[in-house]
Known about the structure:
Elements: H1 3-9, E1 14-19, E2 25-30, E3 33-38, E4 44-48, H2 51-60, E5 64-66, E6 76-80, H3 87-104, H4 107-112, H5 128-132
Antiparallel strand pairs: 1-2, 2-3, 3-4, 4-6, 5-6
Amino acid sequence: xxxxxxxxxxxxxxxxxxxxxxxxxxxxxxxxxxxxxxxxxxxxxxxxxxxxxxxxxxxxxxxxxxxxxxxxxxxxxxxxxxxxxxxxxxxxxxxxxxxxxxxxxxxxxxxxxxxxxxxxxxxxxxxxxxxxx
Length: 133
């Protein structure tokens, strides 16, 4: 199991679906809604963030860009991953995954993680993992 899959495995009702029409591209979904797209070779991921967080990530992370096909204007960000990912980078990636999940998943599932509210209603300055406690 990859590190990405290990993170997703901790999320209620999250499933992996490989899209054959896209060359076997793995996606991760909750109740049929995508919250992560991944390149087949795991060289990049795409996650949904709030508009503000997406703009900040794109502005400050050289490996991030708004997702194509018009999805970027809705908060979707594509992030290139290196071959060796540091522990600090994995923490960042996990934050983005948790945020994406919490924006897409039903509120009842988000509450199972300990989030009383979705990120857009929570403090923009507190990372999701801190709000999970």
